[in-house]
Amino acid sequence: MNSQYDFSLLVVGPLCMLMVLALRRFFDLPTRLPRWNRLLSWLWMPATTAFFITSSFHYRPRLLDDGYVLFAYAVVAITLLQLWRHRPARTVLLALLPLLLHRLLNFVLAVDSLQLVKPYAGYLAGWGKFANIWFLGLVFLARSQKKTLAKEQVIREKEAYARQLIAAQNTELERLVAERTAALTQQAEALRTALEELQTTQTQLIQAEKMASLGELTAGIAHEIQNPLNFVNNFSEVSAELLDELADT
Questions:
Q1: Taking the model in full, what pTM does it have?
Q2: What per-residue confidence (pLDDT) applies to 199?
Q3: Do residues 29 and 37 lie in contact, with contact meaning Cβ atoms separated by under 8 Å?
Q4: Residues 113-134: pLDDT tens digits?
Q5: How far apart are alpha carbons 9 and 161 in whole angstroms?
Q6: Residue 33 predicted with pLDDT over 60
Q7: Cα separation of 25 and 183, whole Å?
Q8: 160-204 pLDDT per residue, tens
Q9: What's the number of domains the chain is made of?
Q10: Domain range holding 122?
């Protein structure tokens, strides 16, 4: 047994929470994984609980802090798996896997108190350095991917807004065309009605003119007929007067 307090848990606990905060901010977990995001808020609890339990019994289990870090890495990997469709999440998961496997192998060897032979121990140490460099490089790549996706999202939003604007303008244009068509149809109907009335009036005027001409013609004929009759009447009267005068003489 080791009577020393395991203060390393008080160090790795906040560090893991900082990792969770970075993960939460980078991938917008409150929006993408709201329920899982609430669970991540309790990631510090195992470290704190383990610290107080071991402190109460004045016992420090070997590799407890390493086990907690491995547990935190596994939680992060599970989080990234849930975001598999998001390209930066796949990149970060790919960056994390070598670190996770390296820590897991070290943990298994430490639990069994095993040591690799000299060449393999050097390979394992080199793997750790490579895993750290690999992790940093892919994290920067994921950051670049996130910026690219954000730009693409802005472009898509602008295109969607433009499509909505065009659709609204088309709808307004269709409404104006429909209103104008209805107005023109109404005007055409009014013009057709006016034209029909004009044609009816014109027909009536023509009929009236024809009747007037017929009346004038009838009056002229009657006048022409009346003149000979007046001549005969006048001639008869004059003849009668002459006969009367001759009779008197």
A1: 0.62
A2: 87
A3: yes
A4: 655 555 666 677 788 889 999 9
A5: 51
A6: yes
A7: 59
A8: 999 999 999 999 999 999 999 988 889 888 898 888 888 888 888
A9: 1
A10: 8-152
* Residue 39 is assigned to a structural domain of this protein: yes
> Which of 57, 43, 55 has its CA nearest to residue 7?
55
Is-contact 153 116, C-beta < 8 A?
A: no
Q: Rounded to whole angstroms, how far apart are CA atoms 234 and 11?
A: 154
Strands (E) in the chain, as ranges, are none
Residue carrying structure tokens 């005068």: 245
Give the span between the Cα atoms of 107 and 110, in whole angstroms: 5
Single-letter residue type at 185: T
Task: List, for residues 122-172, the tens digit of each pLDDT value.
Answer: 677 788 889 999 999 999 999 999 999 999 999 999 999 999 999 999 999
Which structure tokens are listed for 37? 């995001």
Indicate whether 24 belongs to any domain.
yes
